[in-house]
């Protein structure tokens, strides 16, 4: 099924000038960016995006990290895009990520893990709409 998913290149990866390599990796894997923007999240925006994690002990650190510098958000389209992009990212903890995945290649820790991806179709719809309106996404 053709799907769209949200990708965020996080402040650690943007700060290390890895965005170009990460986008190339994504495109080489056959996922097509249909929307792209760079922004610096405010505290309220980061808290809203990660609201599902607000009771977790790492929430405050996660929000601090996600607001520490610019991020690049993208909508990726392709057949089975949600699961394919999750596989490409690798495990949340880079120590557990498979060889060749974005997090194995570029992440430093469970928190500073280079990239985010939506985990399911409903989450993808909500997360894409958090960053992009329909007019921002090419058809
Ligand atoms: P992400 O895929 O963006 O989804 C939630 C984020 O919370 C996750 O990547 C990590 O950056 C962070 N996270 C998840 N679990 C932990 C943890 N145990 N400790 C610190 N940060 C975490």
Q: Please count the beta strands (DSSP E, at least 2 residues each).
A: 4
Overall mean pLDDT stands at 98
Largest sheet: 4 strands, antiparallel
Overall geometry comes to globular
What ligand molecules are bound, each kind once?
A: adenosine-3',5'-cyclic-monophosphate
Strand sequence of the main sheet, in spatial order?
Answer: 2-3-1-4
> Which radius of gyration do the C-alpha atoms yield?
14 Å
Describe the structure.
- The protein has seven helices and four strands; from the N terminus they run βααβααβααβα.
- It has 139 residues and is an alpha+beta fold.
- The longest helix has 11 residues, at 121-131.
- The model has no long low-confidence stretch (mean pLDDT 98).
- Bound molecules: adenosine-3',5'-cyclic-monophosphate (CMP).
- Adenosine-3',5'-cyclic-monophosphate binds next to loops.
Q: What is the secondary structure topology, with strand pairs?
A:
Layout: E1 2-9, H1 11-15, H2 19-28, E2 32-39, H3 43-49, H4 59-66, E3 71-79, H5 81-89, H6 102-106, E4 115-117, H7 121-131
The chain binds adenosine-3',5'-cyclic-monophosphate.
Keywords:
139 residues; alpha+beta; Alpha-Beta Plaits; 7 helices; globular; binds adenosine-3',5'-cyclic-monophosphate
């Amino acid at each position: 099924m053709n799907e769209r998913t949200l990708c965020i290149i996080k402040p650690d990866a943007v700060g290390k000038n890895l965005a170009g390599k990460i986008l190339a990796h994504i495109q080489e894997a056959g996922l097509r960016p249909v929307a792209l923007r760079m922004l610096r999240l405010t505290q309220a925006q980061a808290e809203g995006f990660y609201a599902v994690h607000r009771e977790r002990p790492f929430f405050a650190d996660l929000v601090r990290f996600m607001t520490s510098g610019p991020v690049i958000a993208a909508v990726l389209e392709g057949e089975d895009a949600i699961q394919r992009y999750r596989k490409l990212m690798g495990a949340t903890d880079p120590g557990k990520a498979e060889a060749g995945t974005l997090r194995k290649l570029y992440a430093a820790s469970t928190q500073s893990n280079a990239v985010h991806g939506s985990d399911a179709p409903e989450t993808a719809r909500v997360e894409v709409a958090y960053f992009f309106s329909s007019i921002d996404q090419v058809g």
